[in-house]
Amino acid sequence: MPSSISSDASTATKPPKGRPAVPTYRGPRLRLDPHPEAPDPVNLKEVRAWVRRAPRPTALDLFCGAGGLSLGLVNAGFTVLVGADNDPWSVETHRANIGGLGYLGDLADPTDFLNHLDAWGIRNVDLVAGGVPCQPFSRAGRSKIRSLVQAGIRPEDDPRTALWRSFVEVVRCLRPRAVLLENVPDLAVWNDGAVLVGFRDALRQLGYTTTARIVNAFDHGVPQHRARLFVIGLRAGRRFEWPEAEPIQNSLRDAIGDLPEVPPAHRIERLPYEGPLTALQRRLRQGVPESDRGWVYDHITRDVRPDDAEAFALLKPGQTYKDLPKHLQRYRSDIFTDKYNRLRWDGLSRTITAHMAKDAYWYIHPEQDRTLSIREAARVQTFPDWFRFAGEPSHRFRQIGNAVPPLLAEALGRNLAKALMQRGCRRTVETHFRKDLLRWHKNDARSFPWRCGADPWHVLMAETCLRRTRADQVVPVYRSLTEIAKTPQMMVENAEAVLAAMRSLGLHWRAENMLEIARAIVEQHENRVPNSIEGLLGLPGVGDYTAHAVMVFAFGRCAVLLDTNTERVLKRLRGVTKMDKWQIRSDIYDFAGSAGADAAFNYALIDLAALICRPREPLCSQCPVKRHCESAADDKAARCRRDCSRGAVDGEVGDSCSVGTEVDGIASRLGLRSTHGHCRSCRQQH
To answer: Residue 145: inside a domain, yes or no?
Structure first.
């Protein structure tokens, strides 16, 4: 593709005084022309004609970066109409390689973007995809943000955490048939999964059935340790099947072993190239123009300080900073144990990150005493060699580090394209679970008035009192409080009476906390309970469960109420003893079905935990959802094996097996294989 190198190449930038750093150079600035098949965005007639001709399925890529996700979708059969980002170098890269239209702007308010789509004639697409900026959700990002907040450099609330709302707004306006969101795995654990469930529920309200999973990139041909969270949403009852892992992993050698040897501070854009040696290398050379078959581009490297060069030379493949002699350890070895990392030919690379724009100590070449080049980093991300990156070397490293590996995106894109071709099927295990649970709860619910659409302040009082207290003990206190403290203002005015009414609950701190909450609502919220999670969590002593309970039972919102009781139910349903909280919350949300985790579902699940799925001696035989429970299936299979074994001892093999049919039914519904095929009686029955 046409490109040019700016004349300001190799302008040295002096590092700040007293700060040890690799000598930095602005390096060659690469400018890329738009793809020859891309329409002129200013010529609206040409753009609209191009949009009408675009083959289906079509897609938009929000927060597109360099276009790794877009490239994978294109290879899977999608036409990416627009790539949108606020970084000019990324948009230039996307337009040059992917084609289509580029939108440069802040997506925090999507109004201008939506206006552009309308002007271009893009009023519906098959897929809206994107990777919301992940720094607020990543461990490294949270640490950096915390230090900046403490230093007074930035506000405590990072506006980027709300960018997913802009994503949802675009989805609401365009109503695509499918949605794909990509982010770091830490988004899943943010607030114990509440952010993830909130995003999924926002899509549910727009008519989408969602599924979420953390996917390892190396399972799909990418030669690095890289896990990403993906959320897939489909309309019309279509179901998405996650792609199976590839049987063979690619190593670092498979990706870059054919590239020519270069020294540190290498700045030549084009080098002679002999040819690929492995299947992955051949894949990454596909599409290179015939005139460039004997060349490789972007094999540009960083300079190396003399002391770093000495350290690199001592490191063997697989060794890290802690393996260096003390005189070469410029940083604290108890903290920066892996500040340097010499990669191994036969292993996977560390996760390629945007930090490569600053230094690349984590990516020391297996043999050469330097860090990875731009092209090597792109290869590890599975970008093909014809794909160029605009900007200076630091811009290019950042784009590569932020990208979704194209091979991973392609695997997901293929299965998304298949899902879009299917007819819808709305019947799921989760919807049956919800029906069974609510049918039982209709006749067996405990009567707690604050869980039946009560005033928000009354719900907040009750749920605050419930902490470490049985619900039946709260009822009489709740009735008293609703008389003497009908509003937060009345609680403040009647503080002594409130303290007396709550003494029966035991812990004095609970009454004091309730008074603090009331004062905060009066002083900060004009005597009204906040109607947002953020507002509720800002009240003194209000935690995740209480805040979500108020949203569910007082304001009619959907949310998963997560505590030790609902966690216990979910673990038993899944047949496990250990599970991450974010996964528990996400799975409970799945069981809530298409209506969402509303008040009726949460009320029923809480009562199920208290009345049936008790911590000790659960009443499994009376459980209304036992046909969905893997623990029940395991228990019945164990009884089946025990009965069969007893029958064998008695000389009557299989005749005493009384649960075979039931076990098979549960196993079939859960997608499990029966564990009692050894039993003659079972074989005859099934």
So the answer is: yes
pLDDT tens readout for residues 39-78: 999 999 999 999 999 999 999 999 999 999 999 999 999 9
CB 610 within 8 A of CB 446: yes
Within its chain, how far is the Cα of 88 from the centroid?
A: 26
| Dist CA 195 CA 66 (whole Å) | 26
Q: How many domains does the chain have?
A: 4
Under a CB-based contact definition with an 8 Å cutoff, are residues 361 and 338 in contact? no
CB 252 within 8 A of CB 349: yes
Question: What is the residue type of 682?
Answer: C
H or E element that contains 461: helix 456-465
Q: Which secondary structure element, helix H or strand E, spans residue 438, and what is its range?
A: helix 429-444
Per-position b or e across 624-654, b if 16+ CB within 10 A of its CB: bbbbbbbbbbbbbbebbbebbeebbeeeebb
Closest to 602 (Cα-Cα) out of 475, 462, 445: 445
Please list the alpha-helical segments (H only) found in 205-305.
Answer: 252-256, 279-285
* Beta bridge partner(s), residue 62: 84, 130
Query: Domain range for residue 638?
Result: 629-685
- Tell me the pLDDT band of 556, cut-offs 50, 70 and 90: very high
79 shares its domain with 133: yes
Which range, 147-161, 460-474, 486-500, is most confident?
A: 486-500
- End-to-end CA distance of the chain: give it in Å, rounded: 64
Residue entry with tokens 């006749």: 443
Q: Please give the single-letter amino acid code of residue 530.
A: P
| DSSP class per residue in 112-138 | HHHHHHHHHT----SEEEEE---TTTS
CATH of the domain at 316: 3.90.120.10
Residue pair 60/81 in contact (Cβ under 8 Å)? The answer is yes
pLDDT, one tens digit per residue, over 424-448 is: 655 555 679 999 999 999 998 888 8
Q: Are 211 and 231 in contact (CB under 8 A)?
A: yes
Whole-number Å distance between alpha carbons of 345 and 517: 59
Report yes or no on 621 lying in a domain. no
75-98 residue pLDDT tens: 999 999 999 999 999 999 999 999
Reported pTM: 0.82
